[in-house]
Design a protein that fits this description.
alpha+beta, globular, DUF2911
């Protein structure tokens, strides 16, 4: 083989490799994230409530008690902690919460009431550095069994808001 042919073969191989890598990256870029960010807003009395969260899917997993252990602080969504914003002071389950943006967490339990937490550190990754001393408000709520919801959603109504995922709804009363 002559030198020119070898050089052309090496260059052709390099171009083919680059094309393969670029095509693979382009396909990866088109895939939607497994837990996309979402948000919901609504009015409760005079206050506008906005909840910004990562929306995970069940994807055949056991959620409560396994993926999300009982009696452990959960970020109430995926990836970044869920953020809860109210533009006016509100009453959550009868307790006062000042206007502001909060990290929103829950502590699921196997039976009985769950703890709902509004933490002063709104922007944090998951619950890995969650600090209980930064809690502004904690209240207890009772989960309700509902039809299966593959993807986590939040809803806001004139009576409050709910986190709905898997076969549970976590309703929180707001005035």
């Amino acid at each position: 083989m002559n030198r020119s042919f070898k050089l052309k073969a090496v260059l052709l191989f390099a171009v083919a490799c680059m094309f393969s890598v670029l095509t693979t990256k382009a396909q990866d870029a088109k895939k939607p994230p497994l837990s996309p960010r979402d948000s919901v807003s609504g009015k409760v009395n005079e206050a506008t409530i906005t909840i910004n969260y990562g929306s995970p899917s069940v994807r055949g997993r056991v959620i409560w008690g396994k993926l999300e252990p009982y009696d452990t602080v959960y970020r109430a969504g995926a990836n970044e902690a869920t953020r809860f914003t109210t533009d006016k002071p509100i009453k959550v389950e009868g307790k006062s919460l000042p206007a502001g943006t909060y990290g929103f967490f829950v502590i699921p339990t196997k039976a009985g009431a769950w703890t709902v937490i509004f933490n002063s550190v709104a922007y944090q990754w998951g619950a890995f550095k969650y600090d209980k001393s930064k809690d502004v408000l904690r209240v207890k709520v009772k989960p309700v069994t509902v039809a299966m919801h593959e993807r986590m959603i939040y809803t806001v109504t004139d009576k409050g808001f709910s986190m709905i995922w898997d076969k549970l709804e976590i309703p929180v009363k707001v005035k």
